[in-house]
Amino acid sequence: VWIFGYGSLVWRPGFEFTSRKVGFIRGYSRRFWQGDTFHRGSEKMPGRVVTLLEDCGACTWGVAYEVRGEQIAASLEYLNMREAVLGGYDTKLVKFHPQEKDAEEPILALVYIATPQNPSYLGPASEEDIAAQIIVSSGCAGHNIEYLLRLADFMRYFCPQAEDKHLFSIEEALISILPCLYLTEESLEET
Q1: Which of 101, 152, 90, 112 is nearest to 3 (CA)?
Q2: What is the rounded CA–CA span in Å between residue 37 and residue 174?
Q3: What is the Cα Rg of the chain in Å?
Q4: CA-CA distance, 127 to 114, in Å (whole number)?
Q5: What's the gap between Cα 132 and its chain centre?
Q6: pLDDT(105) > 90
Q7: What H or E segment, with its residue span, contains residue 171?
Q8: Long-range contacts from 167-172, C-beta under 8 angstroms, 24+ separation
Q9: Strand pairing partners for 138?
Q10: Residues assigned a catalytic role
Q11: Confidence at residue 177, expressed as pLDDT on a 0 to 100 scale
């Protein structure tokens, strides 16, 4: 079984796997439109994490993990809790295209997608509003800023040829807001 990750799974799968491949799926765009009240946020201050939006001309880069034998049941049980129960994600099968030049045919992979029907779905917002929400959110897995920056780093280092305007626009908005927050905190300490 292959499992495709496009958010925190790219750097922290949390399950045993046999192999991993960087690549992409077609027909979807990655969006910070899913709320998170456990891993990267709280009930009072939900974080923003990614989901996929159907988009026929787009592709989303990430990592596919191959699980075999006893790894299958353990990984699916873990992901069901992490993504479906705690995250509100549904599963779909997609065609994964490995990055390797001599790659074979596309591989069928399982992917977790949060739909607008789940209670944690936040939907669209401006890059500045999403960045502002990320800055103030933190959960059991760490600060929401870490989630955004690790995802941007993954794209930069493993998929430098790929574009993800939404992701990098939010990163830019976050970086432009952070000095203002630092100066505000510093001036509060002086008074």
Answers
A1: 112
A2: 20
A3: 17
A4: 19
A5: 17
A6: no
A7: helix 165-190
A8: 167/30, 167/32, 169/127, 170/32, 170/127, 170/130, 170/131, 170/134, 171/131, 172/127
A9: 143
A10: 83
A11: 87
> What pLDDT, on a 0 to 100 scale, did the predictor assign at position 20?
96
Per domain, the residue ranges of the chain are 2-185
Within 8 A by CB and 6+ apart from 95, the residues are 25, 26, 106, 107, 108, 109
Give the model's pLDDT for residue 87: 76
CATH topology for 2-185 is Hypothetical upf0131 protein ytfp (3.10.490)
The three-class DSSP label of residue 25 is: strand
Residue in the block written with tokens 């159907």: 54
Helices (H), the chain: 70-79, 127-135, 144-158, 165-190
The amino acid present at 11, given as its one-letter code, is W
3-state secondary structure of 183: helix
The rounded distance, in Å, linking the Cα atoms of 106 and 24 is: 10
The tokens describing 121, both together, are 């779905």
pLDDT digits (tens, 9 = 90+) for 22-41: 999 999 999 999 999 999 99
> In this structure, are residues 134 and 50 in contact, taking their beta carbons and an 8 Å threshold?
no
What H or E segment, with its residue span, contains residue 185? helix 165-190
Residue percentage of the chain with pLDDT more than 90: 81
